Amino acid sequence: MEQSYSVASNPVYYEEQNLHVLFAGESQTPPTHQVGPKIYDYFLLHCIETGTGMFRTEQRTYKLGPGDCFLIHPGQLVSYVSDPENPWKYRWAAFSGKEADRTVREAGFSPEQPVAACGGESGIPGALAGIMETFFEGRESGHLTSLGLLYLTLGEAAGKLKAESGPQGKDSQVKRTVKQMIHYMSSQYAHPVSIEQMCASLGYNRAYLSRIFKEETGLSPVTYLLKLRIDKSRQLLRERPELSVEQVAASVGLTDALYFSRQFKRFCGLSPTVYRAVTARQQDR
What we know:
Low-confidence stretches: none
Oligomer: single chain
Number of strands: 10
Largest sheet: 6 strands, antiparallel
Structural class: alpha+beta
Shape: elongated
GO molecular function: DNA-binding transcription factor activity; sequence-specific DNA binding
Keywords: Activator, DNA-binding, Transcription, Transcription regulation
Protein name: AraC family transcriptional regulator
Domain HTH araC/xylS-type: 179-278
InterPro entries: AraC-bd, AraC_XylS_family_regulators, Homeodomain-like_sf, HTH-like, HTH_AraC, HTH_AraC-typ_CS
CATH topology of the largest domain: Jelly Rolls
């Protein structure tokens, strides 16, 4: 097989980026081709397309093949060598940034777990190839494209790593589902969404979600969503005096201003108009 090596660097560099792809490349390595032992000052993600080889960290040694990914962490002493009979071909991308460490931990990577088995149908090689092709084009907008492709890569790896870690306990699964519900309502409260829509988006039936949500929070999903909307409306009434009560109601996802006023008084003890007047007087003191 013919040896090859190609790399492309990001045409722009930002000093204080939360996440920044530095370069990407590909190589068909020769037999027993070795890198290291050495350390890097950035994250370096490899995905193997064909062939096999060995990846060594400070903790252990991994024999890897097609579809496997390994992530080198900054400051970790590592080495990797291709098989003498079936040398590997791989793609890679290097990245850094203030949020890089948190991002890879969210994906499930760590110095103790640097490998993800993504399989032969993985989309990661294509994403890494896309980063390299984008950098070869030399456009400054390639920075954003490379971030999108990097997130796709880490997202797929995260799914594999979580599957490899085994099934979660019942309690942790319930807590994770309730957090998803809270996040959904917090991001969608301004729209006329329903609890049925939320349940459908999360893939559970309403009775189950309502039960576990109330067990964890003490409130039903309907009450939690309504309370969230009223809390947001109180902020708007205080901070946006130019908005009418109808406009405030619509801004928190309640299109019926009369219903909004009734529910506001139920939670706050005052009508929206009186609440606004009272808080305005307090602020003027």
